[in-house]
Amino acid sequence: MNFINFHKSLNIRVKEVTLSKLFPHENIDFDVVNKIIDKSKSNKIYKTPLLIVCDKTNMIIDGHHRFEALKILGYKKISIIYLNYSSEYIKCSNSNKISKINLINSALNKTLKTSKYSNHHIFDIEKSSWVKVINISINHFMIIKKIK
Questions:
Q1: Which of 19-23, 42-46, 98-102, 131-135 is predicted most confidently?
Q2: pLDDT at 65 exceeding the cut of 80
Q3: Taking residues 47-57, what's their average pLDDT?
Q4: Is residue 51 a contact partner of residue 83, using CB atoms and an 8 Å limit?
Q5: What are phi and psi of 147, to 5 degrees?
Q6: Which domains does the chain have, with CATH numbers?
Q7: How many CA within 13 A on the CB side of residue 29?
Q8: 3-state secondary structure string, the chain?
Q9: Which residues pair with 137 in a beta bridge?
Q10: pTM for the complete prediction?
């Protein structure tokens, strides 16, 4: 397993939250959501990376399709990864063309961007490089629950 060395300003932690308190900023592809649900039902277990969420606004940074699948499967509370989205050690895309403020406003105003609009990266201080944010949850944190 590859570990990522995060800057302490990200203040990464795991917390249980109510799904209805989370705000997506992107539309989803229901074909992807249905694949997540079908895989979960066939395995009789929901095993997937945790959602990554802004700790101040509850905006979903990564995991929109997983979020929708959890809602459809009837979950009310889940564990998520909270992080400090205002840290300079997280960015919306490799090119920095997407504003974090713009995404937060989209989420809070429910004016969703297209699916896969943002491509968040977090800085690995040990390797001095940017890595995709999904690598945090895939490599380090998972939800594993029996299907209801």
A1: 19-23
A2: yes
A3: 87
A4: no
A5: -70, 135
A6: 8-146 (3.90.1530.10)
A7: 8
A8: CCCCCCCHHHCCEEEEEEHHHCECCECCCHHHHHHHHHHHHHHCEEEEECEEEECCCCEEEECHHHHHHHHHCCCCEEEEEEECCCCCCEECCCCCCCCHHHHHHHHHHCCCECCCCCCCEEEECCCCEEEECHHHHHHHCEEEEECC
A9: none
A10: 0.85
Token digits of residue 109: 């105003």
* CA distance linking residue 25 with residue 110, whole number of Å: 7
Judge whether residue 130 has pLDDT over 90. Answer: no
1 confidence band (pLDDT: 50, 70, 90): very low
**Residue whose pair of structure tokens reads 């406003």 in the numeric block:** 105
Entry field: residues in the chain: 148
